[in-house]
Amino acid sequence: MAIKNLLALVVLLNVLGVSVAQKGLDLNYYKHRCPDVEAIVLRVTVQYVSRQPSLAAALLRLHFHDCFVRGCDGSVLLRSRDNDAEINALPSLSLRGFEVVDAAKSAVEKKCPGVVSCADILALVARDAVSVINGPSWPVPLGRRDGRISRRSEVNLPSPFAGIAALKQGFFAKGLNTTDLVVLSGGHTIGISNCGLINKRIYNFTGKGDFDPSMNPSYVRKLKKRCKPNDFKTPVEMDPGSVKKFNSHYFDNVAQKKGLFTSDSTLLDDPETKSYIDRQVATAGSSFPKDFSDSMVKLGFVQILTGEKGEIRKRCAFVKPKTKETLTFL
Ligand code: HEM
Ligand SMILES: *[C@@H]1O[C@H](CO)[C@@H](O)[C@H](O)[C@H]1NC(C)=O
Ligand SMILES: *[C@@H]1O[C@H](CO)[C@@H](O)[C@H](O)[C@H]1NC(C)=O
């Protein structure tokens, strides 16, 4: 096609409101329909996260959970009357930060009602939250639509008890590769977990009162001070000493056998992930911010709904009520 024709087509598509986008999303998706969306979301996110920096970790994790289950379609935000939505699944119970997404959505709705999806708002909030704590920032192509389905039974997130093979497979299934796995695991540079998830690992790994031999004994001693044998509740820092700082200490920890979960430690069991870790340790994490940004952009494309699929919710916790038209259609 001649350049002139191609240009004409691009202009025509833009006039029709169809975005010319890569893989279905577009950095300028809301340029005409809601030009201030990014500024509004940033303002709300800064408000919350600057007051409560631990929300940055919560919001990053929320976006990850959204994308891994049914794709980045806001399904993690949905509530169900029967407690059978994603939010009711075991790994979701410790999710936090929903109030930030809701506040951002309300603020956006005031300015441009019915235009911006909850999935897009969550992707922006996660990006902005990390940047508030001086972590890396990344572009967020937009145009995701919200799903109408959220099922507790579909939550098959990677387990903290998983070994490298299962983790790689879980990421491959989402179009993410081994590099993405080790890079995004670096998200554990911020945030908290709890004693319940490591109890067995430090007290009774094989049922003989032992600890996981892949752990550094001095780290185990430290964790035992924090977590008593039947404590399933006390918060534990993912990256001791710098839970609110987005840095590359996570890789130093893992290299020193101080990964909190099996899923962290096991990154030493694969030549590719291990060499990435060694490289970050040797260079004080020189490429980590850029790598993290690239993998976050990739994560944001997982199984997205675009075009006529899905909907734009009014409130992120509830699907839109069915109209008469869709009711008769069903
Ligand atoms: C590789 C597989 C992964 C596994 C097995 C895993 C597992 C976990 C677990 C078990 C927790 C603690 C939850 C709790 O205490 O109830 C956690 C927390 C967290 N995860 Fe992951 N995760 C993985 C990947 C990721 C990715 C890709 C990101 C984001 C890029 C991420 C970001 C976080 C953050 C920020 C927290 C702390 C949340 C908070 O402070 O509220 N994780 N993860
Ligand atoms: C993973 O994908 C990225 C691009 O998305 C690529 O640059 C990288 O080399 C890939 N890594 C592996 C191990 O295939
Ligand atoms: C350790 O695990 C074994 C086997 O699961 C169990 O019988 C034993 O009671 C556990 N010990 C403690 C102290 O929890």
Automatic annotation (TrEMBL):
It holds the Pfam family peroxidase. Its main location: secreted. Transmembrane segments: none annotated. Binds 2 calcium ions per subunit. It is found in: Secreted; Vacuole. One of its GO terms (biological process) is response to oxidative stress. Its EC number is 1.11.1.7. Substrate binds at residue 158. Its cofactor is Ca(2+); heme b. GO terms for molecular function: heme binding; lactoperoxidase activity; metal ion binding. Residues 1-21 form the signal peptide. The record marks 61 as: Transition state stabilizer. The active site is at residue 65. Ca(2+) 1 binds at residues 66, 69, 71, 73, 75, 86. One of its GO terms (cellular component) is extracellular region. Disulfide bonds join 34-112, 67-72, 118-316, 195-227. Heme b binds at residue 188. Ca(2+) 2 binds at residues 189, 239. Residues 24-320 form the Plant heme peroxidase family profile domain. PANTHER family: PEROXIDASE 25-RELATED. Removal of H(2)O(2), oxidation of toxic reductants, biosynthesis and degradation of lignin, suberization, auxin catabolism, response to environmental stresses such as wounding, pathogen attack and oxidative stress. These functions might be dependent on each isozyme/isoform in each plant tissue. Belongs to the peroxidase family. Classical plant (class III) peroxidase subfamily. This is Peroxidase.
